[in-house]
Design a protein that fits this description.
The structure holds 2 protein chains of 2 kinds. By secondary structure, chain A is of the alpha+beta class. Chain A is built from 16 helices and 11 strands. In chain A, strand 1 and strand 2 form a beta hairpin. Chain B is an alpha+beta fold. Chain B folds into 2 domains: 205 residues, Cytochrome Bc1 Complex, Chain A, domain 1 (2-Layer Sandwich), CATH 3.30.830.10; 197 residues, Metalloenzyme, LuxS/M16 peptidase-like (Cytochrome Bc1 Complex, Chain A, domain 1, 2-Layer Sandwich), CATH 3.30.830. Chain B is 45% helix and 18% strand. Chain B contains 17 helices and 12 strands. In chain B, the strands form 2 sheets. In chain B, strands 1-2-6-3-5-4 form a 6-stranded mixed sheet, with helices on both faces. In chain B, strands 9-10-8-11-7-12 form a 6-stranded mixed sheet, with helices on both faces. In chain B, helix 4 runs parallel beside helix 9 and helix 10 crosses helix 13. Classes of the chains: A alpha+beta, B alpha+beta.
C-alpha cells in the first residue's frame, strides 16, 4: 500500500495500427490515474498570418464532438471527480485528465471522440475567439510585465517566423480565423500518428491496451507531418530593444542566449540546465548571491532554459537560455549585465566548486521526486518527453544524468553564453522616477 | 457524422471517498502541537511550522512581512549564504512566509536528511540574528516587490474588496505599504520573532517518508532547546464584521482594457454544519467549469476567460468570493448576468444532476489536493492553524456525500443572494461608469495608495 514511485523505468509501450503511440506507466500508490493525449504541434507550426492558431485550436477541442456536446467534456470529467485542462507550447499541445482510477475509460472515450470527430460551428469559433482575446488581456495586455519575456524576448532573439512570432497571437489573426483554417490544421496535425497517449498511475497495462484499441483503434491513420527544422543562424551582433511600458512600476530586462540542440547534443544541453541551477536556484546560487544580496542591485533574478522553465526537455532546437531580472533602477541594465558577465567569466574560468555541483544535484533529485509525486505531472512529463525525444524513459534518467555533469561541462556552458551575441530586451517604466 | 464506436459513453463509476491517512497527534513540551503522517510514495519529508498570529500583526503586516524575508538572513553561527548552502546540500528547501492570519515556516527535504534539516530549523528559531544591513536591504527589496504586486489589477481588486468585506477588522489591511516597510528595524524583528514564533501558538507537521513515532521523538529531541519556554494561550481574533453591500464601488485604473469584477460576502466556517452545502452551492454557481457562471459569461457570451466563485477561509471567519475579469465594453452586462445567476440559484434552487456533479467534483478535487505530500501537508497545516482536527480529512468528504438538495438550496438562499454581496470593479472609470450606473448605484473610490 505504500509502493514507491521509483518504477518510472517500468514503462510499457505499444503502437496502434493507425500509428498512435501508447505509453503506460503503472503505479498503485494512490487510486488515481492520469491520461494525456499530446499532439506534436505547437506555436512553431502555425501558418503565417494565423499566429495564435495552435492555442485557439486547443480551445476549440473543448467545443464538442460527435458524441459530446460543447464543454461537456470538462463537465463529464469534473463530475467524475477528476481534473482536466490543456496547454499549448512551442512544440506540443497537451490535453489531459486525472481521475479516480475507476474512471479511466471515460477519459479515453472523451479523448478519442474529439480526435476522431471534432465538431465545430461558426458560433463556437466566434465565441472562443472572444474568450481567447480576454485570456490575452488578463495575461498580457492588462497585466504589468505580461508576456515578458516569453513573447517579447523570442521576438528580438529570433528572425524567422516559427521562432519569433507571438504564440498567443495577434488579435487581427485570431479574428480572421475560419472554420476552413481549423479543418486544415486538424487534418494536418491531429491524427493518431502525430500523437502520444499516456496512461499513468493506478492502471493495468493489459486493460489500457484493450481500452486504447476499443476507443482509438478505429480512427483513420495517416503519416505524421514533418516539423521543422526551425534552426536559424546565430546573431552577428548583439541584439537590443527597449520597450517603454506605462503599466510597470519598475524596470526589468531579459537576456537571451542560444544553447546546444536538445535532441542531438543532449549532454551539452543538460550542462546548460545545470548552469541555470548554479546561477539562480535558491539563495546560495551565484546570481542571487551576487546581485540580490551583495550588490543589492536587483529585486529578483531567474534563469529559464526553454520557453517557460517547466518545458526545458519538451523543446526542439533552437531553445533560448534566458536570464530574467527585475530591478528598481538604482543600477542601469548595463551595469547589472556587466556583473552577470563577471559571474559567467568566473564560472567559465574555474568552473563550479565540487560542493556547488553536489548541492545542485541534491536539489535536482529532490525536485524530481517532488514533481513525480503528482500523478498529473508524471503523466505530462512522460508524454511530453516522449513526443520530443521519443523516449519517455528519459524522465526517470534525468536526475542521474544531470548529477553526472562535470564541472568542465558547466564551465564550457558558461563560456558558451559569453562567446556569442546575445539578445538584451529592456522594459522601462514610462516615467522614470 | 456519428462515429462508429465499439463502446458508447462509459457509465460513471461508484462514488468513492478518499482513503484517509493515519495522523499521529502529540504535544511537545512548551505546548507545541505536533502532527506526523507517513506518506512514503517518494523519499521526501515535508515540514510545516505554523503560528497563529494576533490581530495587531495582521493589521500592521509590515513587521511580519520583513520578518519572513530576514529570518534566513543569518544566524549566530552562519551568514545567509552559508545557511542557504547547508539547506541545499540536504536536497532541502526552507522558507518563511506571512499568510493572511498566520506565519508559516515551510521546508521539504530528502527523507534521509530530516534530522539535519530540523537542526537548521532550530538554529534559525533560536539564533536568527537580523543583521541591520541585511534587514535594510531586505525591506527595500520587499518594498519593490510590493510596488510590483500593487501594479497588478487583480491584486488591486483583492485589496479593494478586503476594505469592503472587513471594515474595522485586521483582515482589511492586506499588503503592507512601502512607507511602513521602511520603518522596520532589526530590533523590531528580534522582538517580533520572540512574540510570533512562540511554541504555545505553534503547530508542527512532519509528513512524508517517515515513521511517525520516531519522527515525533526526533523532533522533540532536536527542538528541545527551543521548546524550553512557558506556555501561554494562542492569540484569538475578533469575528468578521457584518457587511453592508452598498453601491458598486469603482476603483479607477485609467486605460484598463479589462474590468476586474469582484463580489464578496460572508460564508460559513468549516466547522459550521452549513459549510458542505455552501461549498456545493458555490461549485454549482461558479466553481465547476460546467457551472452556471462559466456557461453564461464565458461559453455563451465570451465576456471573460476565467470567471469563478470560491470560499476563502480564515481563522476569524470565511468569505464567499465571485471573480471575473471581463472586457471593458461588457462590464455592466457581465455584472448583470452574474447577479442574474446569483438570483437564479438563490431563488430557483438546483437540480439533482447539478448536485451530483458538484458532489463528485468536490470529493474528487479534495482527493487530488491531498494526494501529494505537499498538498496534504498544506491542507493539514491550514486545518490545524484554524483549529480543525485532522479528522476533517474524513468528515468533510463524508458530509459532502450526504448533503441533500434542500440543504444546498437553503445555503444558496442565504449566501448567494445578490443582496448579500458587496461589489468592487477595477477599471477605466470613463469607460465603465455610465454603463454600471444603469444597473445600480455607483461610487467611485479614491483608488489604492501604493505609498
Amino acid at each position: 500500500m505504500t509502493a514507491r514511485r521509483s518504477d518510472l523505468r517500468a514503462i510499457e509501450r505499444f503502437t496502434l495500427h493507425n500509428g498512435l503511440r501508447v505509453i503506460v506507466a503503472p503505479d498503485h500508490s494512490s487510486p488515481l490515474v492520469g491520461v494525456a493525449v499530446i499532439y506534436d504541434v505547437g506555436f512553431r507550426s502555425e501558418p503565417k498570418g494565423r499566429s495564435g492558431f495552435a492555442h485557439l485550436f486547443e480551445h476549440l477541442m473543448f467545443q464538442g464532438s460527435a458524441n459530446v456536446a460543447k464543454i461537456e467534456h470538462i463537465g463529464l470529467v469534473q463530475s467524475a471527480g477528476g481534473v482536466v485542462n490543456g496547454h499549448t507550447l512551442p512544440d506540443l499541445t497537451a490535453y489531459y485528465e486525472a481521475l479516480p482510477s475507476g474512471e479511466l475509460e471515460l477519459a479515453l472515450f472523451l479523448e478519442a471522440d474529439r480526435m476522431a470527430t471534432l465538431a465545430l460551428t461558426e458560433e463556437n469559433l466566434a465565441n472562443q475567439v472572444a474568450v481567447v482575446k480576454e485570456e490575452i488581456k488578463v495575461n498580457v495586455l492588462n497585466k504589468p510585465y505580461g508576456g515578458f519575456p516569453w513573447i517579447t524576448l523570442p521576438a528580438l532573439a529570433f528572425k524567422t517566423y516559427p521562432n519569433a512570432h507571438n504564440g498567443y497571437g495577434d488579435f487581427a489573426h485570431l479574428e480572421g480565423a475560419t472554420l476552413g483554417d481549423a479543418a486544415d490544421f486538424r487534418a494536418r496535425y491531429y491524427s493518431p500518428g502525430n500523437a502520444v497517449l499516456v496512461v499513468c498511475g493506478d492502471c493495468d497495462p493489459d486493460d489500457v491496451a484493450r481500452l486504447a484499441e476499443r476507443h482509438f483503434g478505429a480512427i483513420a491513420g495517416q503519416p505524421a507531418p514533418p516539423h521543422g527544422p526551425y534552426g536559424e543562424g546565430l546573431p552577428k551582433t548583439e541584439l537590443r530593444r527597449v520597450i517603454d511600458d506605462p503599466l510597470i512600476p519598475q524596470p526589468a530586462f531579459a537576456l537571451g542566449y542560444r544553447c546546444p540542440d536538445p535532441l542531438h547534443q543532449l549532454e551539452d544541453y543538460a550542462a546548460y540546465a545545470v548552469l541555470a541551477n548554479v546561477l539562480s536556484d535558491g539563495d546560495a546560487s551565484r546570481l542571487r548571491q551576487r546581485l540580490v544580496y551583495r550588490d543589492r542591485s536587483v529585486t529578483d533574478v531567474g534563469c529559464i532554459l526553454g520557453s517557460f522553465g517547466s518545458d526545458t526537455f519538451f523543446m526542439r532546437d533552437p531553445v533560448l537560455f534566458q536570464i530574467v531580472v527585475f530591478h528598481p533602477g538604482t543600477a542601469s541594465a548595463d551595469e547589472i549585465v556587466a556583473a552577470i558577465d563577471s559571474e559567467l567569466e568566473s564560472l567559465a574560468g574555474t568552473g563550479p566548486e565540487p560542493d556547488e555541483l553536489a548541492r545542485v544535484a541534491a536539489g535536482l533529485a529532490a525536485g524530481h521526486w517532488s514533481s513525480i509525486d503528482s500523478v498529473l505531472e508524471r503523466t505530462l512529463d512522460l508524454g511530453s518527453v516522449e513526443v520530443i525525444h521519443g523516449r519517455a524513459e528519459l524522465v526517470a534518467e534525468l536526475p542521474q544524468r544531470l548529477s553526472a555533469i562535470q564541472p568542465e561541462a558547466v564551465a564550457s556552458a558558461a563560456a558558451g553564453l559569453l562567446n556569442q551575441h546575445r539578445a538584451l530586451l529592456e522594459l522601462r517604466p514610462e516615467v522614470v522616477r | 457524422m456519428t462515429r462508429e464506436t465499439a463502446a458508447s459513453r462509459p457509465a460513471p463509476g461508484r462514488l468513492r471517498l478518499p482513503k484517509v491517512p493515519a495522523v499521529l497527534e502529540d504535544e511537545l513540551p512548551g505546548g507545541l502541537r505536533v502532527l506526523a503522517v507517513r506518506r512514503s510514495a517518494v523519499p521526501l519529508v515535508q515540514v510545516r511550522l505554523a503560528f497563529a498570529v494576533a490581530g495587531s500583526h495582521i493589521s500592521k503586516s509590515a513587521g511580519p512581512s520583513v520578518l519572513a524575508e530576514s529570518m534566513l538572513a543569518g544566524t549566530d553561527r552562519r551568514d545567509r549564504g552559508e545557511l542557504a548552502k547547508a539547506v541545499q546540500r540536504l536536497g532541502g528547501h526552507l522558507g518563511a512566509s506571512r499568510r493572511e492570519d498566520s506565519f508559516v515556516m515551510s521546508a521539504s527535504v530528502l527523507a534521509e536528511n530530516l534530522r539535519e534539516l530540523l537542526e537548521l530549523l532550530v538554529e534559525v528559531l533560536r539564533g536568527a540574528s537580523y543583521p541591520q544591513e541585511e534587514v535594510r536591504a531586505d525591506r527595500e527589496r520587499l518594498a519593490n516587490e510590493t510596488l510590483i504586486a500593487l501594479s497588478q489589477p487583480d491584486v488591486v481588486a483583492g485589496e479593494a474588496l478586503r476594505r469592503r468585506l472587513y471594515p474595522r477588522h485586521p483582515y482589511a489591511a492586506g499588503l503592507p505599504r512601502p512607507a511602513s516597510l521602511h520603518r522596520v528595524s532589526g530590533a523590531t524583528l528580534r522582538s517580533l520573532h520572540r512574540e510570533i514564533l512562540d511554541p504555545a501558538a505553534g503547530q508542527l507537521l512532519l509528513l512524508g517518508d517517515l515513521e511517525p513515532r520516531r519522527a515525533v521523538s526526533m523532533a522533540g529531541d532536536v527542538l528541545a532547546p527551543w521548546l524550553d519556554r512557558a506556555k501561554k494561550p494562542a492569540p484569538s481574533l475578533l469575528p468578521l464584521p457584518a457587511i453592508a453591500p452598498g453601491p458598486i464601488e469603482i476603483v479607477p485604473r485609467d486605460g484598463s482594457v479589462q474590468s476586474n469584477v469582484r463580489l464578496g460576502g460572508p460564508a460559513p466556517t468549516r466547522s459550521d454544519p452549513q459549510w458542505p452545502a455552501t461549498a456545493l452551492a458555490s461549485l454549482i454557481f461558479g466553481g465547476l467549469f460546467a457551472s452556471r457562471l462559466v456557461e453564461n459569461l464565458r461559453e455563451r457570451h465570451g465576456y471573460t476567460y476565467s470567471p469563478r466563485s470560491a470560499v476563502r477561509h480564515g481563522r476569524a471567519g470565511s468569505s464567499l468570493l465571485v471573480e471575473a475579469d471581463v472586457a471593458t465594453e461588457a462590464t455592466a452586462s457581465a455584472l448583470l448576468e452574474t447577479r442574474y445567476e446569483l438570483g437564479r440559484i438563490a431563488l430557483g434552487g438546483v437540480t439533482e444532476g447539478e448536485l451530483e456533479a458538484a458532489r463528485r467534483y468536490a470529493i474528487g478535487s479534495f482527493t487530488f489536493m491531498t494526494a501529494t505530500q505537499s498538498g496534504l501537508a498544506e491542507t493539514l497545516s491550514a486545518l490545524s492553524i484554524a483549529g480543525l482536527p485532522p479528522g476533517y480529512l474524513k468528515s468533510y468528504p463524508a458530509s459532502l456525500a450526504k448533503t441533500t438538495r434542500a440543504e444546498v438550496e437553503t445555503a444558496a438562499r442565504r449566501y448567494l443572494a445578490p443582496t448579500a454581496l458587496a461589489t468592487v470593479v477595477v477599471g477605466d472609470p470613463t469607460a465603465i461608469g455610465a454603463q454600471l450606473s444603469t444597473i445600480g448605484e455607483v461610487a467611485i473610490s479614491a483608488g489604492l495608495s501604493t505609498r
